[in-house]
Amino acid sequence: MNIVIIKYNAGNIQSVSFALDRLGYKDHLITSDHEAIRNADKVIFPGVGEASTTMAFLKQEGLDKLIPSLKQPVLGICLGMQLMCSHSEEGNTPCLGIFDEPVKKFIPDTSNPEKVKIPHMGWNNLTKLKTPLFDASLENEFVYFVHSYYVAVGPDTAAQSNYIHPFSAALQKDNFFATQFHPEKSSDAGARILKNFLEL
Amino acid sequence: MLAKRIIPCLDIRNGQTVKGVKFLDIKEVGDPVELGALYAEQGADELVFLDITASHEKRKTFVDLVKRIAQHINIPFTVGGGISELSDADALLNAGADKISINSSAVKNPQLISDMARHFGSQFVVAAIDAKQLQGDEWTVTVNGGRIPTDKRLFSWAKEAEERGAGEILFTSMDHDGVKQGFANEALAKLSDERGIPIIASGGAGAKEHFKDVFTIGKADAGLAASIFHFNEIPVPELKDYLIKEGITIR
Fold first, then answer.
1. How many domains in chain B?
2. Res B120: pLDDT
3. Interface test with B, best of A5, A7, A15, A145 (most B CBs within 10 A)
4. Which domain covers residue B58, as residue numbers?
């Protein structure tokens, strides 16, 4: 199988590559080459970083047009997921618009005696799972999140988690899948989710 | 519900895991990659690898070791020790580190926190603070593995670190470290109340109850320890079972 990880100016790409190695998919490519991306069986769009600078880079490389036009299964991770949405409050950035959802900043709930901190960092559990990415055994499993911005629960929500309020832990629409958490850093549960994607 | 995190810390010297009592009297306890993978399998939520000799011997951090760690371990990990330039952090990020911790170098050059946060994002920057209690609420920040006291004070320095963009604070009480009588819960609770970023508690773990206390009384987001895990005095699964029974949210 031909797997491509989209290379752009975002961090954490190496970690996704190592996770694929551990699952036995050592032959994947890390590239921004349009033809390689278009011809892949599966495309992974990872990322840790800031929305406006990464979107500017995607535009410069023409990836802002290419990614929404892909027909094979695509998996966005963390910032990758947020960039697949319509707009991000981070740097007031218009994004790729694959998911018709805005990305908003978490606002701490000061009325909560257990003071809520930003970023949402650490392990939180998944609920209300949909899509083939999540088999039933993953309901309530903990996965690893690091983010200050979130997507509200909406029609494309494929999994929920709760921090300050419920939010989209994963999205899905047609061939586009996305996780707010990091499956590559989420121990065995994360490995199962990546495997489910690669076996779609 | 966001879970409280259990973080084994692996102090590294010459590529080997070590743990010193009050950072002195070092004993070797094994290969960092092997030990890290074991902890990940046991349910550790995160790992910290600190090159404890790096800052005073001016040694560059261990990029190759970090790459091996990233290849073998499927949970997040932080690396620290002797990181004083953006290029150090960049090399560690590219090797697969999820976060870096900066300690003495940030005390000497606070701008480093701002620069790191701007280049790599706050989530990548852990401000590690080693401090000793003077009296009451007054704690002096120390550098170079606790060897040198500074003019900085714990609570004001933690505030500055957050304002400069640190994503987390890793506070080690040098008075509690290695003593195994519990964490500095009072100072931790004050830090946690005052700050809007997660607090990792370090120094003093000697019993399972100490973790319960640090999460309840100390209001910490994560508890870090070394020797109790390395010498298998409290295995990670046993600790987590205990905390779940005590009603604490644990993965």
1. 1
2. 86
3. A15
4. 5-246
Residue A76 phi/psi, 5-degree rounding, is: -90, 140
Distances (CA, A) of B198 to A62, A128, B10, B139, B167: 38, 27, 20, 20, 7
Distance CA B249, CA A101 (A): 30
Q: Is B94 on the interface with A (CB under 8 A)?
A: yes
Measured CA to CA, the distance from residue A158 to residue A134 in angstroms comes to 9
Return all residues near B148 (Cβ < 8 A) that are at least 6 apart: B142
Instruction: Tell me which architecture the domain covering A3-198 has in CATH.
Output: 3-Layer(aba) Sandwich (3.40)
Model confidence over B15-38: pLDDT tens digits?
Answer: 777 765 444 444 555 778 888 998
A96-144 pLDDT per residue, tens? 999 999 999 999 887 776 668 999 999 999 999 998 999 999 999 999 9
Question: Would you call A12 and B197 a contact, using CB atoms and an 8 Å cutoff?
Answer: no
| Contact (Cβ atoms closer than 8 angstroms) between residue A3 and residue A41 | yes
ipTM of the complex: 0.92
Partner-chain contact A117 B251, CB within 8 Å:
no
Give A183's DSSP letter: G
pTM metric for this prediction: 0.93
Would you kindly state where each structural domain of chain A is located, as residue ranges?
A: 3-198
Residue B251 lies in a domain: no
Q: Which residues contact B34 (CB under 8 A, 6 or more apart)?
A: none
A15 touches chain B (CB under 8 A): yes
Count the neighbouring beta carbons within 10 Å of the beta carbon of residue A196: 17
- Report yes or no: B106 and B127 within 8 Å, Cβ to Cβ: yes
Output DSSP code: residue B248.
-
DSSP B99-117: EEEE-HHHHH-THHHHHHH
pLDDT at B25: 47
Cβ–Cβ gap A121/B168 under 8 Å? yes
Quote the CA–CA distance of A179 and B39 in Å, as a whole number: 25
**Tokens at residue B28, please?**
């070797």
Residue the block writes with tokens 């697969």: B96
Which of B76, B95, B196 comes nearest A144 by C-beta? Answer: B76
CA distance B74 to B78: 13
Which amino acid would we find at residue B43?
G
**Distance (Å) of CA A123 to CA A119, B1, B209:** 12, 8, 22
SS3 for A101?
Answer: coil
CATH number of the CATH domain containing B222: 3.20.20.70
